[in-house]
């Protein structure tokens, strides 16, 4: 038998095998694959899980446009203050400076020209770029409200609204701000 004939026979065999099985029903069990396996997010809604799922979020409006903070960072400024930073996919950041430990209540916003002023905030545009710009909160332009702080779990939630001033003295209104984070 020549080599071409063996090759033709082999291809015919493969073709007929695939063709003969293409319309037969599948027998067995299909197993779905969880896309979160290996990411640390396995079974977030598992009823047997004794720990509640962490909810970390920050939302606000910047001059009426939605801001969604999907990355979160806590920085200790000193022994009495922390900076909560929320980063969006659009290279934007809103940060709040709060007392340490956080105190439940409503607080007038102060200016952030000195970044250690508690109950102040800022909006940062173009985070990480050469053109990065930080716009500080305007004193008494709004409030930061701490709704809940559980020192045992570290869960902190609140609301915020304030104005910031840009480098050309224009204002940006930050409104309808809400956050919930876990401090560790």
Polypeptide structure, described:
With 184 residues, this protein is mostly beta strands. 10% of the residues lie in helices and 42% in strands. Strand 3 (71-78) and strand 4 (81-87) form a beta hairpin. Mean pLDDT is 78; it is low at 18-52.
Can I get a quick summary?
With 184 residues, this protein is mostly beta strands. It has one helix spanning 3-21, and strands at 57-62, 65-69, 71-78, 81-87, 92-99, 105-108, 120-125, 133-136, 143-149, 155-165, 171-182.
In angstroms, what separates the terminal alpha carbons?
Answer: 75 Å
Shape: globular
Percent range for β-strand residues? 35-45%
List the secondary-structure elements in sequence, H or E.
HEEEEEEEEEEE
* Integer-rounded radius of gyration: 28 Å
Q: Spatial order of the strands in the main sheet? A: 2-1-11-10-9-6
The computed structural class is: mainly beta
| Helical content (DSSP H or I, runs of 4+) | 10-25%
Keywords:
5-stranded antiparallel sheet, 6-stranded antiparallel sheet, 184 residues, 10% helix, mainly beta, 1 helix
How is the secondary structure organized here?
Elements: H1 3-21, E1 57-62, E2 65-69, E3 71-78, E4 81-87, E5 92-99, E6 105-108, E7 120-125, E8 133-136, E9 143-149, E10 155-165, E11 171-182
Antiparallel strand pairs: 1-2, 1-11, 3-4, 4-5, 5-7, 6-9, 7-8, 9-10, 10-11
